[in-house]
Structures are given as structure tokens and as C-alpha cells.
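Form 7-S
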Amino acid sequence: PSAALRGGKQSQDVAQQHSAAPEAAGAMSGLASVAPAAGLAAVGVAAAAAGRRTARRRAAALASGLNSSARLQPVKCCGERSLANARIVVCAGSKLPEGRKLRVAVVGGGPAGASAADSLAKEGIETYLIERKLDNCKPCGGAIPLCMIDEFDLPRNIVDREVKKMTMISPTNKEVQIGQTLKNDEFIGMVRREVLDDFLRQRAKENGAHLINGLMTSMSMPQKKDEAYVLTYNDYGSEEGSARKGEKKTLEVDVIIGADGANSRVAKDIEAGDYEYAIAFQERMRIPEDKMEYYKDRAEMYVGEDVSPDFYAWV
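Output:
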């Protein structure tokens, strides 16, 4: 929206991206990521409740004896291992073959999937992380709380800007200034998703996870007690661009973690049901350095139907 840039022309180097993100997952933040050295301003709009994903609900009971109600509760998985906070836990088979590690596939290499793969790999679990777009510039506010830097052991230089001021613009164009109570060492970190996500994926890889540049196409559920899940995916290898086809491969695993976003193929295959999602788009544009100075430590959030029906826009 033209109102989102204060005093700057929308010049060259404009890149527009589109994305869908689960509303409940909190994947969308209210602030934008801007690289000060490049003089880039990020402008985004998110429209809430843009659609509802529908999937038939079915009790995908396994031969191991799990019924539909048990699948919605934390369940002991493969002996002593369990995912205590998961809403759905189904493990293929009752125990592992002699001498083999637990084998887990994480579908989706965003912050959630990459962090899960990293934690699993560090515990010595055979982990496969499948991400279809390793260079994805996902439209996202990009704001992370200060505590996340320590809790996720992130390098300080992954933060593009340290935002200490925020301007909220109401539907009637009234402005509210936020940030006066911040201490000198407090800020909201602004990151670019292609930078943050790649760091987390590479760290998982360094800790032992197998990083696969590929797209999951289908998943076969175990039909017998000791059968595995079978993932079918296109392995892109070093291929790039929208025309890539990849090589069709399969992977047998004991556990699958679906972290593949609003259009999750994992959720579709297990018929997880309905959920709300939001649609977002983002533009990055180059503006003069004197205009960029205004956004050096500031972000803006616009709330109003003239900018983004039902949700918000950010700069």
C-alpha cells in the first residue's frame, strides 16, 4: 500500500512474494525485516481468515491397536521415547529392529522443522529434514523477541535491525507510539526468514541431520504392526528454479513430523481436519538513505480495512 511508505517513492528492486501461514501457529509477526546496509524497506500485508482448509476427518487407526481417540493424546512411542506435548503421536511399530536407531523425517525446514531436526539429531536420532525451497524469502514480519536469541543460541549478527520504537496506526489514522518503556539493552530483533531459516537448517545438518532439497509428494501409512511410514518425494539435489523436476525417491521412517506450513501435505495425508489460515504478501523496495534513516530503529503497523481487510500491514 502506498500509505505504508512515509515520504519515499516506490522505486526499483521491488520483489513481491506470496505466502500462506497458519493463523493459530503465530507464524506472522507484526514487524518487517529490513537490511540497513542495502537500504531496503519491507512492506507487507496479511489478510486473516482468507480461507479454510478442508479435509475429511477419518480415524486412521493402525493395526498396532491405536484407535481414533488415542491418536489425539500423548502416546508412548517406541519404548521410552515420547513427544509429550504433541497433539497427535503415532509411531510405526512397537519397537525398533535390533541395532537400529529411531528414524524420523521432518517435512518442512522453517524455524519449527529445522529446530525439531536439530534437537533430534543432537540426541543421536537418525533424522531427515526435507525442505522444498532452500532459498525461500517467506513473507513474514520477521520480529523475534530478545529472549529467542539466547534460547535458540542464535548469533547476534543474524538480526538485521534492533527495533526500539513502534508506531501503531489505527483505522482512523491515529498514531500510538510504543517502546518508551524499553531499557537501553532491550529491543525487538528483525530478521529475514531466508537468513534465519538457512542458519537453523545448516546447524541441524552440522549436528547430524540429513538435509534434503526436495518436495514430499505422498505418504503411506503403516498397515501392519511393524511396518514403517513410507515417504515419496522429489529429490531436487542441486537443481534450482521453478522448472526443476527432481528424482523420485522413497524414504522409510518410524516417525514423521509435519512442519510444512498452511498447505501441509502431511496434514492432508493424515486428514487432520479444518483450520484457519492467513494469506500474506510482501514487497522489498529500495529507498533513499535519508528516508531509510527514519526506519533505522522503528517499525510501523497499520490496522484498518483500507490497508488490509481483517488483519494488519507492516513496514
